[in-house]
Amino acid sequence: MSFGRPPTIGDTFKLTPPQRGSFPLDHDGECKEVMKAYLKCLKENASNNGKCRALSKDYLECRMSNNLMERDDFHNLGLGNIGPGGATTTTPSSNPLAYAGAATTNTQTPSSSSTATPRGSLR
To answer: For a disulfide at 69, which of 10, 60, 63, 80, Cβ 3.0-4.6 Å?
Structure first.
C-alpha cells in the first residue's frame, strides 16, 4: 500500500460476517415503544442494565415476533432466568452452580478421600 492512493479492498481488508448473522433494522418502528421503554429504564437507573433485563427480553421478543431477527432461545441470549413479568428466577448468590465453574465441583465423599494408592502397588 502506498500513500496517496486509495487502498484496494481485496488486498487490505478482510470482511467477516457478524457472529449471529445479519438482521434488518426496524425501519417501520414495530418495536420502537419497547426500545424507548428500555432506554428510559437505562437512563433512570444510571445505565445499570441489570435493572432493565425484563425490558431487554421484551425488546428481543418483539424483534423475533416481527421477524427482525432470527428466533433464538433466551438462555442462549443470556436472558433465560427472566420469567413472566420480569421476575428473576435465579440469582448468582442463590444458585452458584448455574455459572462458570459448576462442572469443577468436588463430588468426593469423606470415605473415598483417603490416601491414594501408589501406582503399581496393590492393596
So the answer is: 63
Residue extents of the structural domains in the chain: 27-88
Q: How many whole angstroms separate alpha carbon 97 and alpha carbon 103?
A: 8
- Report the C-alpha gap between 89 and 95 in whole angstroms: 10
SS3 track for 30-60:
CCHHHHHHHHHHHHHCCCCHHHHHHHHHHHH
Q: 72: phi > 0 → left, psi -120 to 50 → alpha, else beta; which?
A: beta
Over the stretch 14-27, which tens digit does the pLDDT of each residue have? 767 666 666 678 88
Chain-centroid distance, C-alpha 56: 12
pLDDT in tens, 71-113: 999 999 889 888 766 666 654 444 444 444 444 444 454 444 4
DSSP-assigned letter for residue 97: G
- Are 88 and 82 a contacting pair, CB within 8 Å? yes
Cα distance between residue 11 and residue 96, in whole Å: 49
